[in-house]
Amino acid sequence: MLNRDLLKTGSKPAPGELALVQAVINTLDLEDEKDDLACPELLRLWLIRFGLLEDSDSVSESDWALMMEVREALRQALMANHGDAIGDVALVKLNRLVSQFQMAVEFRRDGRAELVPRSSGIAGAAGRLMAIVAQSVMDGSWGRLKICSSSTCRWAFYDSSKNQSGRWCSMSVCGSRLKAREYRKRRLQKTR
Ligand SMILES: [Zn+2]
Predict the structure, then answer these.
(1) What CATH number did the domain enclosing 118 receive?
(2) Could you tell me the distance, in angstroms and rounded to a whole number, from the CA of residue 157 to the centre of ligand 1?
């Protein structure tokens, strides 16, 4: 069972396993310049803790670099959930990245089918994250996972508002900060 208490999802957590994808993105705190996955060993421990890697698996420098690419690609992909299309370069990069992870459709006893990673190790962990993404695209929850509009924050949050118009990880922190900045800008323009 996924221990959601330990996942860094913030005050707006995504439902089910999508919280894992959200938490991976939020391991990098851009504002405080703190990275929970700053080295291969930290990444290994993180992945083991959330069941994405076996205790016996190791993480090399290149495994680590691959996962860092996955994390940024996911952040880029989520930016599209505000309505902006993914840029051409980012899209090619993302699809090239995903093509490295072998996936298969597997049936369950109850007749449901699931997308599962075929590889083990880091490719398996990344594949599992991508499978969660694919599943959430199908059930509609993906569109609600967004990146905070504050350019210094970029935190992943789940938008559960009725009209899906949320823009900030926290209205009281990033939202009000941005509003204050816009207000100052408007006031400045008026006095000119
Ligand atoms: Zn924010």
Answers:
(1) 1.10.3300.10
(2) 8
- 187 C-alpha to ligand 1 centroid (Å): 24
Could you give the C-alpha distances from 124 to 57, 65, 98, 100, 106, in angstroms and in order?
11, 15, 11, 10, 15
CA separation, residue 130 to residues 5, 81, 101, 115, 174 (Å): 22, 16, 9, 9, 28
Residue-number span of the structural domain to which 62 is assigned:
4-191
Ranges of the chain whose pLDDT falls below 70: 1, 178-179, 190-192
Ligand 1 midpoint to CA 169 (Å): 4
Q: For position 184, what pLDDT does the model report?
A: 73
Q: What is the pTM of this model?
A: 0.87
Tens of pLDDT, residue by residue over 103-130, are: 999 999 999 998 999 999 999 999 999 9
Total of domains in the chain: 1
How many angstroms is it from 137 CA to the middle of ligand 1? Answer: 23
The rounded percent of the chain whose pLDDT value lies above 70 is 96
Task: Read off the pLDDT of residues 7-28 as tens digits, 9 standing for 90 and up.
Answer: 777 789 999 999 999 999 999 9
CA of 68 to the centre of ligand 1 (A): 21
Contact call for residues 25 and 78 (beta carbons, < 8 A): yes
Ligand 1 ion local residues (Cβ < 5 A): 148, 150, 153, 155, 169, 174
